[in-house]
Every structure is written in structure tokens, then in C-alpha cells.
Design brief:
- There is one protein chain.
- With about 190 residues, the protein is mainly alpha-helical.
- The chain has one domain: Arp2/3 complex 21 kDa subunit ARPC3.
- It is built from six helices and three strands, in the order αβββααααα.
- The chain starts with 10 loop residues before the first helix and ends in a 5-residue tail after the last helix.
Length: about 190
């Protein structure tokens, strides 16, 4: 007869996945900066490349990666803990400023840092009890702050704020089924949040 002891899960899968999420999070920053200058159905002179995010609604193409970044930061925290999440935010803001086109350095670095910090502050108290709500609510807060700060600092106006918010929100919503799957898998395997 087999032992009735509960199976203990090694922290290794959690750490390995956490490091993958950390790397993916950091990679979203150069991708967002590259997208904003190179990918779009329309590229404005001295402005961003735009993509449609809804009928008659355009947004700078970096929204695709930044929306994903909010979810990945939450997953870094779930797997590696709050300390790694703060390191990821600082590294991401530094990388964002370093890799942004010169005219966008301040806007990119500052908006990324403030919005990811807001995401962290909303996600942290909610994530242990209501993971899906935590990811959605923190993403919504972070992406709104990011959109307003980035557009104002980068372009001196909020012309694309609605498109930014819609585009980033769509990326968060698209990621929610993966979050549900991760939560169910964690429960099945006995993996607890960091």
C-alpha cells in the first residue's frame, strides 16, 4: 500500500516558471519600444505607429506588449514573490528608458515605473484570495496610469488615451484564460503562491 502522506511539491517548478515569466516580462519592454516605432497600419511623422484596437479606434502599437507586461509582472510576483516583482519593475523601467527612442526616454521609463508600481500595489493584497480579480483589477489600474502618463509626457496630449486603454485591456483580457489555467494547475499540483 502506498503512503497516505500528501505529496510535497518542489519549489523548483515554481521558480523555473517564475524566471521564465521574469524574462518574458523584461522582453516586453524592448518589444513595446520597437513596436511603437516600426509596427502599425499608420506611422505618424514624429509620432507613434498606430494599430486599430476597435472599430474607429487607434492606439500606439506598443499597447500590445505593455498590456501583456502587466500580466507577466503579476505572474512574476505569484511565482517568485514581491521582492522579485519590485526588481522586475525597476529593471523594466531602466530597460524601458535605456531602449526607448531618445524623445521617449522619460515618458517610457517613468510611466512604466509608476504604472507597474500601481499594478503591484493593487495586485498584492488581492492575489492570494482572488487571483483573476487581482490580475484584472491591477492591470486596469496600471494600464490606465501608464496610458495617461506616457501619452502626456511623450506627445503632450492624450489624443490616443482611449485607444491605449482599450488595447492594453484587450491584452489583459486575452491573458485571463491562461491565468485561470495556471490557478487550476497550481491547485491540482499543490503549488502555492510565493
Amino acid at each position: 500500500m502506498g503512503s497516505l502522506k500528501p505529496k510535497l511539491i518542489s519549489p523548483r517548478p515554481r521558480s523555473f516558471e517564475g524566471y521564465l515569466f521574469f524574462i518574458a516580462f523584461v522582453l516586453t519592454i524592448p518589444m513595446a519600444n520597437w513596436f511603437i516605432g516600426n509596427i502599425g497600419t499608420i506611422c505618424l511623422q514624429n509620432g507613434p505607429c498606430l494599430i486599430p484596437v476597435a472599430p474607429t479606434l487607434m492606439a500606439p502599437s506598443g499597447v500590445l506588449m505593455i498590456g501583456l507586461a502587466f500580466v507577466l509582472r503579476d505572474l512574476v510576483q505569484r511565482r517568485l514573490g514581491a521582492g522579485f516583482s519590485i526588481i522586475a519593475i525597476i529593471a523594466g523601467a531602466g530597460l524601458s528608458a535605456f531602449l526607448a527612442p531618445p524623445a521617449l526616454v522619460l515618458a517610457s521609463g517613468f510611466s512604466f515605473f509608476i504604472s507597474e508600481l500601481a499594478d503591484f500595489l493593487v495586485y498584492t493584497p488581492l492575489q492570494r484570495r482572488r487571483l483573476i480579480l487581482a490580475v484584472f483589477a491591477s492591470g486596469l489600474v496600471g494600464l490606465t496610469i501608464d496610458s495617461v502618463i506616457f501619452l502626456y509626457l511623450a506627445f503632450g496630449n492624450l489624443d490616443f488615451v482611449t485607444g491605449q486603454i482599450v488595447g492594453k485591456s484587450l491584452m489583459v483580457i486575452i491573458a485571463l484564460p491562461a491565468i485561470i489555467w495556471i490557478r487550476q494547475r497550481d491547485k491540482k499540483l499543490g503549488i502555492l503562491p510565493a
